[in-house]
Design brief:
296 residues, alpha/beta, Rossmann fold, 5-stranded mixed β-sheet, 9 helices, 40% helix, 13% strand
Length: 296
């Protein structure tokens, strides 16, 4: 004998409804309304997901001249041709990367290139380099005339320059670590050995055709011939201007103004409101007022 559980014997409370003698006549309208409700519900879910996605992407790029969400490799020219007059510009760049704390790597080169910091390290890890590019930091090995600390690589690198070695090493590091949105940030006076120019040209062409690697150049007061050589392979937009290395109050205010107007998010929000309005108009429940009892 099958025992019926206690809860199954409880009376089912039905929703109050208006009995219709022609219910079959409105069955099509009922199905249509159900489909409209499901369609609007799916649209609301989609728009809400897009709104969350756009809201999560509202933060402005911490370094304007770098691609968003990119891992950069700083490729610094340590050859003898880079004079102390360029150190201020190098220090500005390092400060900007440190403040933004973007993911970086570090390659130093002259006639050969060395990996100093692997890709993906925090930008703040570049901070110790500032003492070599900022005068007056003190220490036991300071040039009394310039007040700059002695560069620890000056005995490692020779006077020759092969920019191709730095570019090739940086690109290989990005591929080694499977980085698909990498940026090579070349910091150099763009002067290279004559026999290295064909290799530099090949390196620049390979980077241009590499969909996973971008190139940005911070020129350190190059002579016109060296600059013209690089301009043959690199578009003007990929040369970082000195003004982009400085952070002024006016530029910061403009960046905040631009960042505070998220047009895509506003558009999605407007569409979401329209969808909610359509849901209320098309799918709102029909309320039938109760008949008032006449009082004697």
């Amino acid at each position: 004998m099958v025992t019926v559980p206690e809860w199954a014997r409880l009376p089912v409370r039905r929703r109050r409804a208006i009995p219709l003698s022609d219910a079959d006549a409105v069955r099509f309208a009922l199905r249509r309304t159900t489909l409209v409700r499901l369609g609007i519900a799916a649209l609301l879910v989609l728009l809400a997901a897009i709104a969350v996605w756009r809201a999560a992407d509202l933060n402005p790029r911490p370094v304007a001249f770098l691609p968003a969400h990119s891992t950069s490799i700083l490729v610094i020219d340590q050859s003898k041709s880079v004079y102390i007059s360029s150190y201020k510009r190098i220090a500005q760049l390092i400060r900007k990367l440190v403040a933004a704390d973007v993911p970086v790597g570090l390659v130093a080169f002259s006639d050969t290139a060395y990996e100093m910091l692997p890709p993906g390290a925090r930008g703040s890890e570049l901070k110790p380099l500032l003492r070599f590019y900022t005068p007056g930091h003190g220490g036991s090995n300071v040039d009394p005339e310039t007040l700059y600390a002695a560069n620890p690589w000056q005995d490692v690198f020779s006077g020759g320059t092969k920019i191709s070695s730095g570019l090739d090493l940086a690109r290989s590091l990005l591929h080694r670590d499977h980085i698909h949105n990498g940026t090579i940030l070349l910091v150099s006076d763009l002067g290279t050995a004559g026999e290295d120019e064909p290799d530099v040209a090949q390196s620049l062409i390979r980077i241009e055709h590499d969909k996973d690697v971008h190139l940005k150049i911070v020129p350190l007061f190059p002579v016109q011939d060296d600059l013209a050589f690089f301009q043959r392979f690199v578009p003007a937009r990929d040369f970082v201007k000195p003004s982009q290395l400085r952070v002024t109050k006016a530029a910061e205010s403009r960046r905040r103004l631009i960042a505070s107007t998220p047009w895509p998010l506003l558009l999605v929000g407007g569409l979401l409101l329209l969808a909610l309005s359509a849901n209320e108009l098309a799918c709102g429940r029909l309320h039938v007022p109760r008949a008032r009892e006449e009082t004697a």
